[in-house]
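Task card 7
Instruction: Convert sequence to structure tokens.
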Amino acid sequence: MTYSGADVLAHLSELARQRALTRRVTDAIIIAPQSQDGEFLQSALRGVMGYESRILISAMVSEAADLTRLKQPEVVFALDPTKVEAVSSKTIRSLRTAGISCPVAVISDLMTQKSAAEVLASGAFDVMHRDDVCGIRLRECFLKLAALEEQ
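Output:
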């Protein structure tokens, strides 16, 4: 089956339509050990969440916990540059221990089906490869988040 640019645009349009029907997410935290990775994801999230949304970046879970003392985020994006799924699972446990109870999406440089399954089993609501952040996949992530909130 041939996949064309028109197919991508049609899919993006459908995702935008579905997203318009869901509640707006306005508060997110990015956990990124390297600031340029956090800024990269923040820029991509601005395109999905909007510029009026609060999107904070922290380097560590403890710093993210400090940022949430006044207001819990609606979603956390944890960037895992180590290519080890055990780190993502540990990050999710650390977030829960720190009192952050919102859904967590993990973004990794290396994401196989096996590692994605392990991270999902540890409590992440979504997992994606870093290369998918600027594409359709990030928009699909927000639709999954909306579906979680409806349950």
